Amino acid sequence: MKNIISLFKKDLLLEFRQQYTFYGILLYVASTIFVLYLAMGQPEDLVWNGLFWMIQLFVCVNAVAKSFLQESRGRLLYFYSIAGARDFILSKLLFNSLLMALLSLVTWALFSLLLGNPVINGLRFIGISILGGLGLSLVFTFLSAIAAKAQQNAALMAILGFPLIVTQLLLMMKLANTAFSQVIQDSLLMIVVLLIVMDVLVITLSIILFPFLWKD
Amino acid sequence: MRLSWWKILCIFLLLFISIAGFLGGVPAKPILNETIRNLYFHVAMWFGMMIFFIVSVVNSVRYLRTGKIRYDAYSVEYANTGILFGILGLVTGMIWANFTWGKAWSNDPKQIGAAIALLIYFAYLVLRNSMVDLDKRARISAVYNIFAFAMLFPTIWIIPRLVESLHPGGMGNPALNTDDIDSRMRLLFWPVAVPAWTLLGVWITTLRIRLKLLEDQKLNHA
């Protein structure tokens, strides 16, 4: 536990010192949404929702990609000697899910500024987008570990990840649609539970499988 | 030529299903008409695909546990055969859909699920080919195989419940409704069609595994 926190702190510190990734991603989000705005103006609710989640997906791929790709071989070896593989992946998962939660809020803010805001139930939408960001970041963190080990770039991550994430993305879109009206559907809780179960599944798999990735 | 018993059984069952499948009695249903015979071919392909993907994952786990490279060969070859069966299943389904639904692709959840499964395993092959080192390739692709398989199952279970389907077998069920098959067809489907195609797939895979292991041996001695 102590290891996880110190590794997490290290990632956070690196982020504060360099500030390159965060602002880079921020600019990425802003310019993508701006281009979207120029291309479509203010779309309908359903289109808005679809665009929102697609942007989330691409932001996540770009934000998470660097988490393993940035670490050099020597540094990885060093971490391996002072902390276990499990601590390392858990700290990465934690860091990336917090980063993604923050980016979800930024994306939403920019969306409502430029593309209009169809969301009626704001609190629910925040919850949904953070939950969705969590799911995305967990899956892509693990995939970035795989891509980094295969010495590949973010493109491979997208190939590996997109078919895997489709289900979660569809569930999230369905969930997010409910935030556009006052009506509460019965299946809402069911979908939330399903998404949480899938997140737990991904975390468990990462803990079990990551040590095998690491060994060299 | 020496054939073991299951290969002879496979040939016999394939001949039987090809003849009886086209000549045997089937219930006359509107819209479906004679396309109902696709059950013996199309549905059997999906059973084959799922069985091969499961065998592939089991071999990936065995590879990670033991580190023996031959399990990696099993794993990739079963995945290859699974992909072949998946493509055949998709194609037979699309031909069928063209007659009954009016078009080959209509974003039916079963079609989406099948396409996702194939995309995942294509990605597996791409990942494999991106690495040169044998041990590393085996280990990393085994990890992805297990991870992807675990994520694929929720897809197959969940998507049919999210989107409405025209596919026989009704809502919610991933493949088919076992209760409403005609009894004559059930007699041909379970004991003949499914084992026939699965055995054929196993046969293809064992040949490919032997070839691959021989190639590896040759490389080691070169």
TrEMBL record, chain A:
Pfam families reported in the protein's UniProt record: CcmB
Keyword field contains tRNA processing: no
GO molecular function terms listed in the Swiss-Prot or TrEMBL record: heme transmembrane transporter activity
GO cellular component: membrane
Predominant localisation class: membrane
Signal peptide region: none
Transmembrane annotation, as ranges: 20-40, 46-69, 89-111, 123-147, 154-176, 188-214
Swiss-Prot/TrEMBL keywords: Membrane, Transmembrane, Transmembrane helix
GO biological process, one term: cytochrome complex assembly
Domain of life of the organism encoding this protein: Bacteria
Keyword Lipid metabolism part of the UniProt annotation: no
Topology relative to the membrane: Multi-pass membrane protein
Subcellular location: Membrane
Family: Belongs to the CcmB/CycW/HelB family.
Protein name per the record: Cytochrome C biogenesis protein
Native organism taxonomy: Bacteria, Pseudomonadati, Bacteroidota, Chitinophagia, Chitinophagales
From TrEMBL, chain B:
An example Gene Ontology CC term for this record: plasma membrane
Signal peptide: none
One Gene Ontology biological process: cytochrome complex assembly
Domain of life: Bacteria
One Pfam family matching this protein: Cytochrom_C_asm
Top-level taxonomy: Bacteria, Pseudomonadati, Bacteroidota, Chitinophagia, Chitinophagales
Topological category with respect to the lipid bilayer: Multi-pass membrane protein
Subcellular location, record wording: Membrane
Residue ranges of domain Cytochrome c assembly protein in the record: 8-152
UniProt KW keywords: Cytochrome c-type biogenesis, Membrane, Transmembrane, Transmembrane helix
Stretches that traverse the bilayer: 44-64, 76-99, 111-127, 139-159, 187-209
Protein name as it appears in the record: ABC transporter permease
Molecular function, one GO term: heme binding
